[in-house]
Amino acid sequence: MKRQISDKKLNNKVTCQICFYICKNYISLAKHLQHQHQIKSQEYYDKYLLKENENICTNPNCTNITRFINLGKGYVKTCSRECYGIMHIGKNNSFYGKHHTEEQLKRGVATRMNNDSYNHTQETKDKIRKKLEGRPHDWGVSGTTGMHFTEETKLKQSIKALESYKNGRIHPNTGKKMPPEYGERVSIGRKKFFKNGGKVWNKDITEEDPRYLPWVTKTTKNRLAVVCKRPNHFEADVGEYLEELFPSRFEYVGNGSVLINGRSPDYIDKENKIVVLCHGLYWHLLRYDLKDTPENKRSIELKDSEPFLKAGYDAWFIWELAHKDKKYDEKIFKYSEQS
Q1: Range with lowest mean pLDDT among 93-97, 224-228, 249-253
Q2: Do 86 and 26 share a structural domain?
Q3: Distance from C-alpha of 66 to C-alpha of 58, rounded to nearest angstrom
Q4: pLDDT at 169 (0 to 100)
Q5: CB within 8 A of 266, min separation 6: which ones?
Q6: 3-class SS at 320?
Q7: Are residues 288 and 230 both part of a single domain?
Q8: Domain of residue 320, CATH code
Q9: How confident is the model at residue 4 (pLDDT cuts 50, 70, 90)?
């Protein structure tokens, strides 16, 4: 499973000057510095990337330190609005004292008129209309782009709108006949709603409720099918490791194609009943204000392995950045196996 990277992404790669790890762009480098080295982007920039007087205001009469933007842009050129105005307004402006003559302005307008810059010819209009015809409209209505309502249709819409406001707000489905199966589905949903005391049935539902697992399985599968269609960079790297260590054994199922007790592993070996979970530092630690320590990682591993252990699967964990300085080695995986 080799990851495909576009030429554009390859050209944006940057190297960490501390550990020489290659990041795909400056955003990735900033996250790497935060998670791996626990330093801020500005601190790293000042130490390794700062040019001479780059963080000093460009106004000759000012020596203030300017504001840091990010790793890609560095520092702003001026420290305040006043200094910006001095450097870009008046004699410091590169266009100061330069004006188009009346003859130049007329010549420019005439040139644009001759090139049809102001008005499209009928031939150009027809080409544009033909190109746009049938495309989805910005509002999501297919096939309406390039089409126009007749005056009769516009009048009917105006009269209908006036009548609706005169008679009070009218539901858009008023007067429409819905299919019988749709009405039945709505009826069942409304009955459940009122039977539950006017609350959504799954509110405050517990894991002991027999309805919990089917509901979680369905919603998780639908969500992952959209969000995790393909593995991210970290998961793709893990897939390459698994293929190198255990050829043709593990399959990516992080898209919700396989759920075990309502939980989705990232890779699965069905024959040997093993699941692999790729844990990113942010999603499994930092977003919960947990530090990157072995104790915190182990507690999360024990909790996340429960659904798979109950189903008779061994759970293997690999944490983000754990494999960066190691070659293909089975020891990078942490095991939670059946006792």
Answers
A1: 93-97
A2: yes
A3: 9
A4: 61
A5: 231, 235, 238, 252, 253, 254, 275, 276, 277, 278
A6: coil
A7: yes
A8: 3.40.960.10
A9: very low
How confident is the model over 78-87, as a mean pLDDT?
A: 81
State the residue for tokens 């008046």.
90
Instruction: Name the residue range of residue 196's domain.
Output: 178-204
| Residue at which a domain ends, from 50, 72, 92 | 92
pLDDT of residue 214: 82
What is the distance between the alpha carbons of residues 283 and 286, in angstroms, rounded to a whole number? 7
Measured distance CA(132)–CA(139) in Å, rounded: 14
Q: Which residues contact 137 (CB under 8 A, 6 or more apart)?
A: 143, 144, 145
Burial class (CB in 10 A: 0-12, 13-18, 19+), 281: buried
Q: How many CB atoms within 10 Å of residue 67?
A: 12
Most confidently modeled range among 30-39, 104-113, 180-189:
30-39
Total residues belonging to the chain: 339
pTM to 2 decimal places: 0.41
Q: What angle is formed at CA 92 by the lines to CA 87 and CA 94, rounded to 5 degrees?
A: 115
Asked if residue 229 lies in contact with residue 255, where contact means CB atoms within 8 angstroms, the answer is yes
Which candidate, 18, 4, 24, 7, places its Cα nearest to that of 72? 24
166 located within any domain: no
Residues 237 and 325 both lie in one domain? yes
Give dist(CA 15, CA 23) in Å, integer. Answer: 6
In a shared domain, residues 183 and 240? no
